[in-house]
Design brief:
By secondary structure, this protein is an alpha+beta fold. It has helices at 4-14, 18-25, 33-60, 65-84, 90-108, 117-132, 137-158, 169-216, 227-244, 258-265, 267-284, 308-322, 348-364; strands at residues 248-255, 290-295, 298-304, 326-327, 332-333, 336-342, 369-373, 383-385. Helix content is 64%, strand content 10%.
């Protein structure tokens, strides 16, 4: 089911009024939601003042020029300040609101009190003060406008002599309906602005949350998963394997003699080597595999639905890729020791430890090689594969 925002956008587009809508209220890339609501309220105030004045002139042949000019001046000032100059200051907003409230109070007696057009205008201004005013100041404006409205209602209720209804009933009906329609359309438009802005801001917040969550699981240097994230990947794979019965394998990689790289070329150059090694590892695995920096110069790779022979093929390819990373300018290349372990029912921590022990066995055997352990062999037995 389409939401309110989609319906409003469809109606606006269908009527080809979107350019006019953006010209009046402003684009969301330039104005925030509250700012665009200010623009819309100011424009509605201008439109209402003009409509009421025209109706009075055409049907009654009498216009309250002082009230109309005061209301128009306040509305135009607010609109220019907000829409044209791109500002939404509290002082200008408060002055404009006070001007509107004063004009509406003075016009109350000329337009029939509760049954006249001014009541519609005041009802529009009440929620407007809540929407456009920042922090607690909105309650002060709301209280001020509400006080004017309540005072006039009480005065009218207890003093019947102040209820002056001028003009023909048909004229008053037409004027009231015109103002009511404009207020309704304006309120609907401002509501659509708020809803569309809320939807876009919620989507943006979700994107930021997803990005923050992704950044929290990524190693900033290599771009691979960090220690916590790759350990979580092992836990998830253990649970999946126990549920489905399908196996997986782990590859533990440690760069050989990496301390000498830092000692000879400095830690900044060592970070560059780690970054290249991480890229080489990522290039050797599938999209479904999870590679992470487990610590220092150690890397852990999770290979879902991969047995020992398949993991060995990946590890041998990885050994060659990392061995192609140059170190310095004298022809030296990077070397690594790799341990490969096929899951055999152990806990996540025990499985990682088993892969780590296999990697250290490769390092003790001289490095630059792969050592693999199979679950079918007794504990302590190792199958060695040297590249």
């Amino acid at each position: 089911m389409p939401g309110t925002c989609d319906i409003v956008a469809g109606i606006v587009n269908a009527m080809t009024l979107l350019p006019i809508y953006l010209a009046v209220v402003g684009d969301h890339r330039r104005f925030d939601a509250r700012h665009r609501i200010v623009n819309g309220i100011a424009f509605i105030a201008i439109l209402l003042t003009v409509v009421v004045s025209l109706v009075d002139f055409l049907f009654v042949n009498a216009v309250d020029f002082r009230g109309a000019l005061a209301a128009l001046a306040g509305a135009v000032t607010l609109y220019v300040h907000s829409r044209v100059m791109g500002r939404s200051g509290f002082i200008v907003l408060a002055v404009a609101m006070a001007c509107f409230a004063l004009v509406f109070a003075l016009a109350w007696f000329d337009h029939g009190g509760l049954f006249g057009t001014t009541a519609f205008l005041i009802v529009v201004m009440l929620p407007a003060t809540l929407l456009v005013s920042p922090s607690r100041r909105r309650y002060l404006l709301f209280a001020a406008v509400a006080l004017v409205f309540v005072s006039l209602v009480v005065w009218e209720a207890f003093d019947q002599s102040v209820r002056i209804v001028g003009g023909l009933p048909s004229v008053r009906f037409f004027e009231s309906m015109a103002v009511f329609i404009i207020c309704a359309l304006g309120a609907f438009g401002l509501f659509s602005v708020g809803m569309r802005s809320l939807r876009s801001e919620r989507a943006l917040a979700e994107q930021f949350a997803a990005r923050i969550e992704a950044l929290a699981s990524i190693d900033g240097l290599t771009g691979l998963l960090n220690h916590s994230a790759v350990f979580k990947a092992v836990e998830d794979e253990v649970l999946r394997t126990r549920r489905t019965g399908r196996t997986f394998s782990l590859i533990m990689v440690d760069l050989d003699d990496f301390k000498s790289v830092n000692g000879q070329f400095g830690h900044q150059y060592g970070d560059q080597i780690l970054e290249r090694a991480g890229k080489a590892i990522q290039d050797c695995v599938r999209a479904t595999d999870r590679a992470g920096r487990y610590g220092g110069e150690e890397f852990l790779v999770v290979l879902p639905e991969t047995d020992l022979s398949g993991a060995l093929a990946v590890a041998e390819r990885m050994l060659g890729c990392i061995g192609g990373v140059p170190v310095g300018q004298d022809g030296r290349v990077l070397a690594c020791s790799i341990g490969v372990f096929q899951f055999d029912g152990r806990t996540p921590a025990e499985s990682i430890h088993a892969a780590d022990e296999l990697m250290y066995r490769a390092k003790k055997d001289g490095g630059a090689r792969v050592v693999a352990g199979t679950p079918s062999l007794p504990p302590g037995r190792l199958e060695v594969q040297t590249a």
